[in-house]
Design goal:
Elements lengths: L4 E5 L3 H14 L4 E5 L2 H10 L5 E4 L10 H9 L5 E5 L4 H9 L4 E4 L4 H12 L14 H11 L3 H11 L4 H8 L3 H15 L4 H9 L8
Parallel strand pairs: 1-2, 1-3, 3-4, 4-5
Helix pairs in contact: 1-5, 3-7, 7-8, 7-9, 7-10, 8-9
Protein name: Response regulator transcription factor
Organism: Pseudoxanthomonas putridarboris
Pfam family, one: Response_reg
């Protein structure tokens, strides 16, 4: 386990510290990296391409519900992601699974569950609470559409969801405005959306039920 690198992405310092402590108890030789936002998560992954596992909260700054999970799965499909959330709604758990998570740990779970989940996923398995909600074909279709986007197009899509204009997106992502226009056109086509507003509504649908 000396080469195991685990990234904990959660914007609540106290809970993040608790997770890190639980990981060090279960895997004392693992390297644990922390991030407190979607941007920090991306930066950490760029700095540590050898990351073996990500523990991800859904409500960090810069994320729209499941968008961080989808973004990571698109850019780093080889890295398994385990969602940690205070929202234990069965549909939230099912959606996390359908959007590519390898596991789901409710924040109300005992610390031992973190070690169990991490061990299971690192061994190539999965770790989810018992599921009572049927698989959603709508979510499967949405995941398939989003999977067509390139990482850069996904970033542009999130900016669209925030209501940014092309000029603002260009500034935010350090792109030429014409490049943004090309991306927006491609995004709308791949998502089968007729307008920027429709695409933004699609992103909003990634927000889980209830509060996380």
């Amino acid at each position: 386990m000396t080469s195991t690198t685990i990234l904990v992405a959660d914007d609540h310092p106290l809970f993040r510290n608790a997770v890190v402590h639980a990981l060090r108890e279960a895997l004392p030789e693992a390297c644990v990296v922390e991030a407190a936002s979607a941007t920090g998560l991306n930066q950490a992954l760029e700095a540590r391409p050898d990351t073996d596992l990500i523990l991800l909260d859904l409500t960090m700054p810069g994320a729209h519900g499941f968008s961080a999970l989808l973004h990571v799965r698109g850019e780093h499909p080889e890295v398994p992601v385990v969602v940690i959330s205070s929202n234990e709604h069965p549909r939230v758990i099912r959606r996390a699974q359908q959007f590519g998570a390898a596991g789901f740990i409710p924040k109300s779970s005992p610390a031992e569950s973190i070690g169990e989940a991490v061990a299971a996923v690192l061994e190539g398995g999965a770790w989810f609470p018992p599921l009572t909600v049927e698989r959603s074909e709508a979510d499967a279709t949405l995941a398939a559409k989003l999977a067509q986007l390139t990482p850069q197009q996904f970033r542009v899509l999130l900016c669209l969801a925030d209501g940014l204009l092309n000029k603002q997106i260009a500034h935010e992502l350090a792109l030429a405005e014409n490049t943004v226009k090309v991306h927006v056109t491609a995004i709308l086509k791949k998502l089968e959306c007729h307008s920027r507003t429709q695409a933004a509504v699609l992103v909003k649908s990634l927000e889980p039920e209830g509060t996380l």
